[in-house]
Specification:
The chain contains no helices and ten strands. The protein is an all-beta fold.
């Protein structure tokens, strides 16, 4: 059974950094990070393929966020730098079900809160 568990969320000040982790059980999948802010739809933030390591970043996070995976530890990371109040959301990891990266997903984690404020 595929399970994904996020960790690493928490309050961070604007301009700060945070690293989220997504522990994946089961087979190796393409994994994505998604987020949902209050009153907004869930959106794809960054995704990484299972095989060749290709990645996708939403325009809003390009140059600030970095996705990576450790296939030995079955963990996917999202390094978030230069955080902005607009990045505040609940962040979820999920299996990217494709075919277009970061659009459709399944096997959602429980989510981790990332508030960004002083």
């Amino acid at each position: 059974q595929t399970q994904l568990v996020e960790s690493g969320g928490g309050l961070v000040q604007p301009g700060g950094s945070l690293r989220l982790s997504c522990a994946v059980s089961g087979l190796t999948y393409a994994i994505g990070w998604f987020r949902q802010a209050p009153g907004k739809e869930r959106e794809g933030v960054s995704c990484i393929s299972a095989s060749d390591g290709s990645t996708y970043y939403a325009d809003a996070v390009k140059g600030r966020f970095t996705i990576s995976r450790d296939n030995v530890k079955n963990t996917v990371y999202l390094q978030m730098n230069s955080l902005k109040p607009a990045d505040a959301a609940v962040y979820y990891c999920a299996v990217d079900s494709g075919p277009i990266m970061c659009i459709a997903a399944e096997h959602w984690g429980q989510g981790t809160q990332v508030p960004v404020s002083y």
